[in-house]
Structure formats: structure tokens, C-alpha cells
Design goal:
The protein has no helices and 14 strands. With about 180 residues, it is mainly beta. It is globular, with a radius of gyration of 18 Å.
């Protein structure tokens, strides 16, 4: 990632925390603060709050706070983690668009439920409304987010048939389109 000073650095995740290493001769890795011992399943750099600083969004195995947000600040510093979701999760994906960042997750406690979130300011929208996906055993399915032309989609491998199920993401929810 590029810092405000123009310096480039790489973030390295481990069970003991996240280290940052500036990409310049003689640089040494330093622990990113706040340093927390969490078993990360995945993490993303994304400007979740739209303030121009890259934040860290992490998916952990912690059952009380499996989805957490470290708000980014000047020169790559991070605020302490805030819990974004406090129940069991099966999987998480962060989508970056031209305007904002959205988070899609498969709920681990409710079968066949995908949730979408976006940190937003202003008028309420349909984002966040729940619509169950018609997927058997969705928590064990392989899925990813991608672009199909100019449309953002969620693609899920069907566990029973050799096909991909494609869900177009729009402002009103999910529209199902099957791709054989």
C-alpha cells in the first residue's frame, strides 16, 4: 500500500499480529499497532468509511467478533478494532466499487443466508435487506465475487450439479441468474 508520504509498504499477517515493512533499503518489519493475537481467516485493505485512508477488514475465528474493522489513519496507523458482525460466519468477501466498499458474508448460524453491508451516511436504502439464497448447504459451497461485464456478481459452485450459480448484485438485492 502507498502511504501519504509516498512510501510503499507491505503488510504481513501472522497469528501474533500484523507487521508492516516499508519497501526501501535497510527497512525492518515493525508490528502494526494495535497488535492483537487473532487467528485470521482472511483480511482486506479497503477504504470502508470513504475517508481516503485504507482500513483493514478482517475475518477471524473468534466466535464473538468474527468480522472486525480497523479504521485507517495518517501514515497507515490503525485505530483499535471495531466489531462489524458478532455471530458465526461461514465466509466473507469484500467488494470494492468506484464509489464505496461493500461486504458480503454467509451467515454461519442461519442456513442459506447471505448478508450485504456498506458503511453509509445519509438516506436509508434497500441495502441490508435480507433475501435468502436458494442454495443447499451454502456454508460448504465455494463462492467468490467478480465482475461479469459491467455487473458485479456473486458466483457460487453448485454442490449437486456441474454448474455455477450467478447472482447479480444491485441496489435492490440479489437477482438470480444460473450459468450452466
Amino acid at each position: 500500500r502507498e502511504l501519504e508520504s509516498g512510501t510503499l509498504e507491505v503488510l504481513i499477517s501472522s497469528d501474533e499480529g500484523i507487521q508492516r515493512l516499508q519497501l526501501q533499503a535497510g527497512a525492518r518489519a515493525q508490528w502494526l499497532t494495535p497488535r492483537e493475537n487473532e487467528s485470521r481467516k482472511n483480511w482486506w485493505l479497503a477504504d470502508l468509511d470513504g475517508d481516503g485512508h485504507e482500513d483493514v477488514v478482517e475475518h477471524t475465528s473468534d466466535s464473538d467478533a468474527p468480522l472486525r474493522w480497523y479504521r485507517g489513519g495518517e501514515e497507515g496507523l490503525l485505530a483499535p478494532a471495531a466489531t462489524l458482525f458478532d455471530r458465526s460466519l461461514s465466509d466473507v468477501e469484500v467488494f470494492r466499487t468506484a464509489d464505496n466498499v461493500e461486504i458480503a458474508l454467509l451467515d454461519g448460524s442461519v442456513r442459506q443466508l447471505m448478508r450485504r453491508y456498506r458503511l453509509d451516511h445519509g438516506d436509508p436504502s434497500a441495502l441490508g435487506l435480507q433475501r435468502p439464497l436458494a442454495l443447499d448447504d451454502a456454508t460448504k459451497s465455494a463462492w467468490t465475487g467478480m465482475w461479469q461485464g459491467d455487473q458485479r456478481v456473486l458466483v457460487v459452485a453448485d454442490r449437486k450439479r456441474p454448474q455455477l450459480l450467478c447472482y447479480a448484485l444491485d441496489e435492490n438485492g440479489l437477482v438470480r441468474t444460473a450459468i450452466p
